[in-house]
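Researcher: Next sequence.
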Amino acid sequence: MKLDKYTVGKRYGKALFDLAMEEQQLEDIYQQLLSLREVYEELPDLGNILSDTRLEPYEKREIMDKLVSHYQGTMKNFLEVVFNYSRMDDLLLMIDEYEYRYGEHQGLISGVATTAIPLSEEQKAQLEEKIAQFLGYKKATLSNKVDPSIIGGVVVEANHQVIDGSIGKQLEKITRLIKK
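Model: Next structure:
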């Protein structure tokens, strides 16, 4: 039975986190994964290329050698395992899982705050503080996404939870109550 991408991402990300914890390299591996994510953002097809069966193994190996030359130790070994199992196209999901576990371990949470207009730095900092307290974390880091359709207020998505404080949602509730 072939595993779906999300299950693979969770398993590999958890395995790397557990290994990094055992070797006391949580922060180092985390920083390396962030740099790897940047590579994948700059070259969005890299994972597909390294997992593509149409390419000759030596062609993929040349690309992989250039990629792993920037890493060493645990990170390099991890990338080799992922490559050997043709899972390089799932690497971003693995990074997401590691980042989630890292954040949990550090008492950090990251998410997205959707607002009708951009938040100022002060508003963003206040919201991050409130969300961290509300969800029981030491610190929250939120990126701001603008969506005028929510009319006003904020919708926060973090830790697989949605906190909808938008005016659009409140108007929707009022409309349903009036129709009853």
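Model: Helices lie at 5-22, 26-42, 46-51, 57-68, 73-84, 91-106, 121-135, 167-179. The chain is about 60% helix and 15% strand.
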